[in-house]
Amino acid sequence: MSDYRPVDAATRVEIEQLIAEMLYRLDHNRADTTWELYTEDGVSVGPMGDMDREAMKAWGAKRARQTDVVGRHFIGGVRLVWDGEEVEGTVQYLTFRDANEPQTLPASVGEFRERYRRVDGRWLFARREIVPVFGGRAAAAHAARVAGREGSAQ
Question: N or C: which terminus of the chain has fewer CB atoms within 10 Å of its end residue's CB?
């Protein structure tokens, strides 16, 4: 375990607040602002595709207009460790979506594999990889719905 260098309590709180802010914006029709939580060279990788900040901005604007889709994210098992000047994180998640049948079962269960960087005194996402472990087909179907390609993810 020589590579295990946990972060201090203050850093943990700040990064957990960043994660919570991201999920709040996703769950409350503010996806059009999520790109602001990334570094200039930040990327998001996962079922929605590989996106830089500009692609995230376009995706978020489209997703924010889809007010008929309701989702909620729940997280736990947050592991944060130093990697040089940056922090690496693994966050376990459950996503519930009203488009899932039945709605009371998670649409996706997996982990966020993240890298955080402090910029001008503020922690931001440098990289966010969304890795569905269960419900990958539902995550792909949701990505297709948001992109306007309803039938292509099945």
Answer: N
